[in-house]
Amino acid sequence: MSLNPPITDWPGRRVWIVGASTGIGRALAERLHALGARVAVSARSAPALQAFAAAHPGTLALPLDATDREAMRQAQAQIAQAFGGLDVAVYCAGVYTPTSAADFDLDEALRQTQINYTGALVMLDAVLPGLIAQRGGHISLVSSVSGYRGLPRALAYGPTKAALINLAESMWFDLTDRGIGVSVICPGYVDTPATRQNTYRMPALISAEEAAGHIIEGWRRGRFHLHFPKRFTGWLKLIRHLGDRAYFKVVRRATGL
Fold it and tell me: Which of 43, 99, 181, 217 is at a distance of 20 to 30 A from 4, taking alpha carbons?
C-alpha cells in the first residue's frame, strides 16, 4: 500500500534539489532533467552548479549555504517566479567526517549538525507555506542507514541522520491529509566524495547514478522509506531490532571496532 501519492510522470514537474553539486544530488538532478522535469539545483559551489546548468538547458542554478534562511527563502521565491511553483523539494545536502568520543571535536560535531539537519529545517521553512497552500507536492529528506542505530566512528554524523528520519516521520503525520507526500531516503554505501574518505571495504557499494534510480523508483511506488541496495540495507533494518547486548556484539564483530 502506498503511503504517498505515487509520482509517475516527470515532464514539466518542478523539482528543487538542495545539495546537488556532487554525489547523489547531482545524479538525481541529471536523471530528473533527462525525464523532462524542470530542475532547480542548489549547493555552496557556484561553479559546479553553473557547469551543471550549462550542460542541462532549462536548469535553474541557485548557489547558497543551506543554513542561511534568508538565502533559502530567496531561492524559493526565484523558483516560484521562474517555474510558477514547486512540486518536489529534496534535501540532499550533507557532510561526513568520521568522529568518535575518544577524539571529540565540538566544532566538527556542530558543523555536521548544522549542514545535515538544521539545513533541512531551513529548507522546510522556505517550502512548506507554498506546498500547504497548494495542497500538493512532495518533500524528500536524504538520511542514511547510519541513522538507524548508533555505529562506530559516527558520533557526529549518525545522530543528524537519525534526526532526519524522525523529522520525516513526524511530517508525514502532519502533511499526508493535506495531499503532500513525505519520504525519507536511507542509502547504504554510495560512491560519493564523502564515502571516499573511508579506508575500509564498503560492502554493496553502488554508484550515485544507481542510487538516483532507486530514489525515482521509490517515488513511483509511493514509498515513505526508501532504502537501498536492499541486499545490504535490509540486513541493517533487521539488526536494528535486536536487543542492545546483541546489537553491540553484532556491530563490533562486523566492523572490528
Answer: 43
